[in-house]
């Protein structure tokens, strides 16, 4: 018998809160597109530049 969305939701609601959070995260990650190469490094560089700017302006 195939699993339906309704039966899956019913079963998921019987899980503990932590198990539901983990399950929800896994579901969301399964539909998110893969990040483009270099995006993480670009965000890291931007973050460190901004934090460096903040540090300089406070001194």
Explained architecture:
The protein is mainly alpha-helical and 59 residues long. The protein has one domain. The termini are far apart. The model has no long low-confidence stretch (mean pLDDT 89).
Provide a brief overview of the structure:
With 59 residues, the chain is mostly helical. 75% of the residues lie in helices and 0% in strands.
Whole-number mean pLDDT: 89
Rg value? 20 Å
The shape is elongated
Number of helical elements: 3
- From N to C, what is the helix and strand string? HHH
How many separate domains make up the residues?
A: 1
Low-confidence stretches: none
**Considering DSSP H and I runs of 4 or more, what fraction of the residues is helical?**
over 70%
Structural class: mainly alpha
Span from first to last CA? 67 Å
**Major sheet attributes:** none
How many beta-strand runs?
0
Strand fraction equals under 5%
Q: Could you name the key traits of this structure?
A:
59 residues; elongated
Topology summary:
Blueprint: H1 5-13, H2 17-31, H3 39-58
